[in-house]
Amino acid sequence: MPRPNILLITTDEQNARAAGYAGDPTVRTPSIDRIAREGMVFNRAYTTQPLCTPARASVWTGQHVSRHNVNGNIFTGRKEGVRAGTVTFSNLLRRAGYETALIGKRHLGFENEADIGLDYQDLAESKFDFNPPHRTDHYRHWLAEQGHAKEEIETWVRRDMHEEYVRNYGAVRHPLGEDLYIDSYIGRRSVEYLRSRGERPFFLWTSFCAPHHPYDPPARYDEMYDPDDVVLPERPDGELEGKPLRHRIWAVRCARNAPAPHGWGAPSQEVQAMMENPELCPSTAEIAGMIPEDVQRLMIARYYATITLDDDWIGRMLDTLQERGLLENTIVVFASDHGDHLGEHHVWLKGTTMYESLVRVPFLVRMPDGLGAGRSCDELVSLFDLAPTFLRWADAEQLYTPEGHEFREELDGRPLDSLLECPGEPIHDELFIGTRALVTREWKYVWNRGDLPELYNLQDDPGELTNLTGRPEYTDVELALRERLHARFNINP
User: Fold this and answer.
1) Do both 124 and 216 map to the same domain?
2) Is 311 inside a domain boundary?
3) What's the domain range around 407?
4) Average pLDDT over the chain, rounded to whole?
5) 67 phi and psi angles, rounded to 5 deg
6) How many CB atoms lie within 10 A of CB 163?
7) Spatial CA neighbour of 82 closest among 436, 91, 213, 435
8) How far apart are CA 114 and CA 177, in angstroms?
9) Which of 428, 350, 394, 300 is nearest to 42 (CA)?
10) Cα(177)–Cα(173) distance, rounded to whole angstroms?
């Protein structure tokens, strides 16, 4: 039996609930649903940090953020990179005879570019241009060859779209043709790559940029969704009164500031005043009316539309594998780097919270022999489990680092193969998200310096609507979780 090909498909900032297989009644994801139907659904999969760059560093290295030490996003003039000498799974796959490729968003620097271990890269780094001058972005070069300047797709700086962009909080129709959209480029290049494969086993990471904001579908996909069909999330009256103050401030910041490319930009003077004087912060009821509901529905509808575009390209990729006779020997993994609040708890995009909407991710594995097909797993898994899993599938996990250590000795992740065979056997009893959240099968504890901590019973309250911190009946649980978190990261509260 030849070694399997491995296809990793990721979206960017996809809420784990935003897929047909996950029960969303509106979003259309037939290709993703096919992977779920023909593979295993991991319902409790988490990012290591709800930011693009740290999460991707965990995929490459198999390590928690506290070990690889990439804590922030990469921007122009700010290099967030993996330390020189860090071993990536792709480097070991290449040494084991695999052809290794990435098409789309890498969003991660390396102090030594050779450390990443890729034979082929076709980069489409982002909907906005954050690359330092020395970094290549193949998509933007291609766009220029088609006669379009990068400013044409940057909807937040276009004067002709500014009013709409601000009014709809970055939910706007893509101003150019569908074929010029960044994820159309990524999907098209991925299909071309798969069509050209030979006998050598390959690893391909197709890394889409949507549904990351701005929520900007091309016209055909925008027209697929009627905002009136969108179901807004449950948000009980007074919910935020029992939450950390920073959550209410963040909700106000979302409502008062039009989103900048990387988030919500600098806080407005009103928000800054609340940060300095919490008594000025509005109540949940006041916050609830700040973004009109019709605008919220439009935001979610256009978010969904970008997911459907990606889904169509995923379908073409699966069809290409089938046509080439490769599907029966290709493992397909679908995931996202982190989620999006998408209006839950009155907040949007990503930001200061550790809610499930932001830290739980879609995570599917389709095995060519049908192992795990049609089943779901409720055990804890993390993005850092991908690296050791890929190496086990490729029979490459015994390879050594340049220092002579087994790669697996430097990992926080664990292979997923045992869960595919027996989805009720845990590989993690708990997971740390960033350096201030701890998740177990039942509980989540979040430490917020200088603010109210959070304790949620995820079995009874999966929507995290009720913060149980400080309640006498949960004192022992809260104390135990807090001590484990503080001990793990040497936190002095």
Assistant:
1) yes
2) yes
3) 5-237+291-425
4) 91
5) -95, -45
6) 9
7) 91
8) 36
9) 428
10) 10
Spatial contact of 245 and 298, defined as CB atoms under 8 Å apart: no
Where a domain ends, among 367, 395, 425? 425
Q: Which amino acid is at 350?
A: K
| DSSP 8-state class, residue 264 | S
Beta bridge partners of 382: 46
Mean pLDDT of 301-319: 98
Mean pLDDT across 459-475: 97
Mention every residue, 6+ apart, whose C-beta is less than 8 A from residue 186.
103, 104, 105, 124, 139, 206, 207, 208, 209, 313
132 sits in the region (left: phi over 0; alpha: psi -120 to 50; else beta) called beta
Do 221 and 366 sit in the same domain of this protein?
A: yes
Place of tokens 């701005």: 214
In tens, the pLDDT along 45-94 reads 999 999 999 999 999 999 999 988 888 777 644 566 787 778 889 999 99
468 in the same domain as 334? no
357 and 482 in a single domain? The answer is no
Domains held by the chain: number = 2
CA-CA distances (angstroms) from residue 170 to 129, 247, 252, 272? 16, 21, 16, 22
Token pair 């069909």 is at which residue?
229
Number of helical H runs and strand E runs in the chain: 16, 14
SS (H, E, C) 277-326: CHHHCCCHHHHHCCCCHHHHHHHHHHHHHHHHHHHHHHHHHHHHHHHCCC
What is the Cα–Cα distance from 409 to 223, expressed in whole angstroms? 50
Are the CB atoms for 386 and 62 separated by under 8 Å?
A: yes
Amino acid identity at 435? T
Q: Of 378, 397, 425, which residue constitutes the final position of a domain? A: 425
Start-to-end CA distance of the chain, whole Å, equals 55
Same-domain status, 385 and 479: no
**Claim to verify: residue 450 and residue 415 sit in the same structural domain:** no
Sign of the torsion angle spanned by Cα atoms 149, 150, 155, 158: negative
Helix (H) or strand (E) segment spanning residue 333: strand 330-336
Q: Are residues 337 and 464 in the same domain?
A: no
- Mark whether 122 and 145 lie in a shared domain: yes
**The whole model's pTM is what?**
0.95
Task: Tell me if 301 sits within 8 A of 227, measured CB to CB.
Answer: yes
CB 184 within 8 A of CB 309: yes
Tokens linked to 153: 């797709």
